[in-house]
Amino acid sequence: MLHKFRHLAACLAIASTTMGAIAQENAAEDDGYKFTHTIDLKTTSVKDQSRSGTCWSFSTVSFLESEMLRMGKKEVDLSDMYAVSVCYTAKGEKAVRMHTSCEFAGGGASHDLLWILRNYGMVPEEAYKGLNYGLDKHNHNEFDRVLKGFINALAGDPKTKSLTTAWKKAYQGIINAYLGEVPTEFTYEGKKYTPRTFADQVVGLNPDDYVCLTSFTHHPFYEEFILEVPDNWLNEKMHNVPLEDLMRITDNALKNGYTIAWGSDVSEDGFSYYDGVAVVPETNEDNLEGTELSKWQKLSDRAKRNYGLKSPVKERTITQEIRQQAFDNYETTDDHGMHIVGMAKDQNGSEYYIVKNSWDTNNIYKGYLYVSKAFYAYKTLDIMVHKNAIPSDIKKKLNIK
Asked: What is the pTM of this model?
């Protein structure tokens, strides 16, 4: 998924497996948020996608790394850019076949990594960093423009009546020039692997064990459909469940040790990376009362936009209808992928999901966010979980074995 805002530059780097110590070390001021962790699941260190629209890969690679830890495997730093490179090759071929009448950009979805695992394998970060253009951090501004310009010139020009045999080699040459050639063989911890053997012998995850879910009313519940968003370039299907089931699946997964790959919209004023929270404040004066109403009426326009980011406030009640309206009005779009790794409560007892981001570690919680259940219910586009994380009654309705 592509993030709407400027991707944040890197500053710091840390390695961590849980968030417990971070909450204590970064406690907010006395009148701010105070979080108590109730679930902390194992994860790898926070990475930095920097100036690239590759959150879908970073978040899902993080998810796969946590799945390996959950299964008792050793920690491995998987390559985020391997999937990006392989997907760009496939996207280019599709765009040419469709005469550019399909989405062609750096975005994607969590199920792209399942497709990669199933068809191509996986490699470690040390074997493929995807930095072949003189910088030490990802910056795809030039790369994306050059690729898109090539595809548009090749297949978007009505004067093009036929293609030569050179175009695929030329197109792949651009990808290789910026990201480097994907390895066909490499050595990891003294042993030689191919991407296929590394995925099978080291990663050891079965793509068929993972399920993508969403919750919208323009398709029947408990059936699969192709989610109509630009970055679903593979046209993969997702299971559609009611909002209450989506929330149950999420809580059940975390309580049973499963993390979640999360696709969301982060364009709301209630999402703040630097403040480390994502909330949906109730800002309708008809629903505010007492001191909250008096506070609201005294706020400047700027302060109203930041309402709820500094300390807990009353949040909107999110319904299935509100979710659908936001999606239909383009207010909820496929703009960012993250990784849910735990749960917490604020000082008022309200529950939040602990979310690992991929914008480096330069916010108050060192790269993590606390996402309220209201925000999650409102802005979740889709999730990916292990099938065993789904409650048995819901799994039965979805006909998942």
From this structure: 0.91
